[in-house]
Design a protein that fits this description.
Blueprint: E1 2-4, E2 10-12, H1 16-27, E3 33-34, E4 38-41, E5 44-47, H2 66-69, H3 74-83, E6 89-92, E7 98-103, H4 104-116, E8 124-127, E9 131-136, H5 140-150, E10 161-163, E11 168-170, E12 183-186, H6 198-218
Antiparallel strand pairs: 1-2, 3-6, 4-5, 6-11, 7-9, 7-10, 8-9, 8-12
Length: 219
């Protein structure tokens, strides 16, 4: 990726994490944050935070007040990765988007139903922990409990988590320990620049999560 610095000099970006962060900030206008990174230690990978065990090795914020450091400025993004090259790419929720996090099987079932009904899903992340994360318009956190009740369901009965202000999602090509990289199940494109409202997606997501919960009880 070729970018221009603040004096207009073009140069090549070689850090894939920085390249992705710049793309999210420049093309999608999302705030990004440089998180922890994976480091090799005696032939094994460990998290740069030094915690053993680390619950999300190489894929979490590294300091208190991290939300204040996130930025959509490409100048600030360059500075963050200059200070900590190779850092993971984190996207703060509750700003440009909220995120609905569901089990992988339920997420793909919901995506199939959305495609059949021509319901646009927006960008969808695929976590190596076998979760799908649907990006929706901000404000979903406060609305989901009432929306689920209107569907005859409750949040406590479904493995469905909404991430809003004060939370974050790791973004590709971030790796989560030895589990593998975060990937896009549906990448950001020009056709899904406008995110869906959570109310549009919650019906298929709740149905799919309910199916998965029932199947798990029957095993």
């Amino acid at each position: 990726m070729v970018v221009e610095n603040t004096v207009g000099v073009r140069r090549q970006v070689t850090d894939p994490m920085l390249e992705a962060a710049l793309r999210y900030a420049d093309e999608r206008h999302w705030d990004v944050l440089a998180g922890a990174r994976l480091v090799e230690d005696g032939g094994t990978l460990r998290c740069s935070c030094g915690r053993v065990p680390c619950p999300a090795p190489g894929a979490h914020p590294v300091e208190p007040g991290w939300a204040d450091r996130a930025s959509g400025s490409t100048v600030e993004v360059h500075r963050m990765w200059r200070e900590r090259p190779g850092s993971s790419v984190l996207l703060p929720a509750g700003r440009s988007f909220d995120a609905v996090d569901v089990p992988e099987a339920a997420g793909f079932l919901a995506l199939a139903r959305m495609e059949r009904t021509e319901l646009p899903a927006g960008p969808v992340l695929c976590s190596p922990k076998r979760r799908l994360v649907f990006l929706v318009l901000p404000g979903a956190t406060a609305r989901v409990p009432a929306l689920l009740r209107a569907l005859g369901r409750s949040a406590s009965s479904l493995d469905l988590v909404v991430r809003g202000e004060g939370d974050y999602v790791p973004a590709p090509p971030t790796r989560v320990g030895t589990s593998g990289p975060v990937q896009w199940a549906r990448p950001p494109t020009a056709s899904n620049r406008w995110l869906p409202d959570v109310g549009e997606l919650l019906g298929p997501l709740a149905y799919a999560c309910g199916r998965e919960a029932a199947a798990a009880r029957g095993r």
